Amino acid sequence: MTTKHRIIQVGSYAGSPTANARLAQDYDVVELWKYPDRKAALAEHGKGVDVLVTSANFGCTAEMIDALPDLKAICSWGVGYETIDIQAAQRRGVQVSNTPDVLTDCVADLAWGLMIASARRIAYGDRFVRTGGWGQVHGSIPLGSRVSGKKLGIVGLGRIGQAIARRGAGFDMDVRYHSRNKRDDVPYAYEASLVELARWADFLVVATVGGPGTRHLISREVLEALGPQGTIINIARGPVIDETALVEALQSGKLGSAALDVFEHEPKVPDALKANDNVVLLPHIGSATYETRREMENLMIENLQAYLRTGKVITPVTE
Fold first, then answer.
1. Rounded alpha-carbon distances, angstroms, from residue 283 to 154, 234, 259, 312
2. Both 142 and 92 in a single domain?
3. Which of 93, 119, 137, 294 is most buried, with most CB under 10 Å away?
4. What residue ranges carry the coiled-coil annotation (predicted)?
5. CA distance 267 to 206
6. Are residues 119 and 219 in the same domain?
7. What ranges in 204-266 are assigned the alpha helix state H?
């Protein structure tokens, strides 16, 4: 009887219908989330474990890395890795992989869905019909805004940011972007000042990476520069926006509207956002399609298999 290779799995992949079963079929999986004392579980089962699988939701701390003396690879499900201690992994020579590219189009599609839903009051109109408002009051819902021909600002022009920008061409939009560095390989105008980009834009889409380096990058000043006719869309990470400042800007009328797939303290969402008809809310579903989740699962497992076969993951995080 062949002995299965032992791995550590930090959390259950609830967002994928088959990932847990596929891992359990091929590997001896230590299901860390089932242990009330993780530290004791790692001490008991961690010796000899060279691969850990996780996601941005579950992360991997320096303490966990230190508790696994034989760890050589961390394979993460998803594109984000801000909850994985990359520096601790690098100090130990531990490879870290994520699943880029496979979710780019679905996240970009959702950004546009949020943009159009906010501008054309689609979520508001849906509630209006469902609650019997149509026909019960004079007129209909408040007017929305045109999307075509408007000015689109993008914060972060990586894979997803570029996919969002390309879709702007189909709507005859003027596209500009802000990022840490100007790119010479794109046809879009660069704006070195995030505040000036917000002041120029009608729609500002946040598509940058998460983590300490971008926390509250979208500040009160940026939100107010976007202005009472502007819309902020976030499909990146919740903490990139100062959520307290966002609520205050919306309530005061200094910001027009918001369309959000992510929040600063998920799954908690401020009641002020829930009650505001100028806000569209989604429960962090940017990659939540059958096709994308399957491809994310496949790539995570392919990284795991590649490490065990060759000693190298396929899509390493190179930060």
1. 22, 12, 11, 34
2. no
3. 119
4. none
5. 19
6. yes
7. 220-226, 243-252
**Residues paired with 232 in a beta bridge:** 204, 258
Question: CA torsion angle for 129, 134, 139, 143 (degrees, to 10)?
Answer: 0
Q: Residue 205 contacts by C-beta under 8 Å, 6 or more apart in sequence?
A: 111, 115, 152, 153, 154, 155, 161, 164, 233, 234, 235
* Number of structural domains the chain divides into: 2
Domain containing residue 171: CATH number: 3.40.50.720
- Which tokens hold the place of 276? 């505001």
Helices 290-310, 104-119: inter-axial angle, 10-degree rounding: 150
Residues 137 and 19 occupy one common structural domain? no
Q: State if pTM tops 0.70.
A: yes
Active-site annotation holds for 284:
yes
For residue 85, give its domain range.
6-98+291-310
Is residue 297 among the annotated active site residues? no
266 labelled catalytic: yes
Q: Which amino acid is at 93?
A: G
Which residue matches tokens 């500040």?
Answer: 219
Unique residue bearing structure tokens 């003396």? 69
- Catalytic residue, candidates 44, 63, 221, 266: 266
Contact criterion met (CB below 8 Å) for 61 and 258: no
Same domain, 214 and 273: yes
Q: pLDDT per position in the chain (319 positions), as tens? A: 568 999 999 999 988 889 999 999 999 999 999 999 999 999 999 999 999 999 999 999 999 999 999 999 999 999 999 999 999 999 999 999 999 999 999 999 999 999 999 999 999 999 999 988 887 765 688 999 999 999 999 999 999 999 999 999 999 999 999 999 999 999 999 999 999 999 999 999 999 999 899 999 999 999 999 999 999 999 999 999 999 999 999 999 999 999 999 999 999 999 999 999 999 999 999 999 999 999 999 999 999 999 999 999 999 998 7
Residues in the chain: 319
45, 284, 295, 302: which one is catalytic?
A: 284
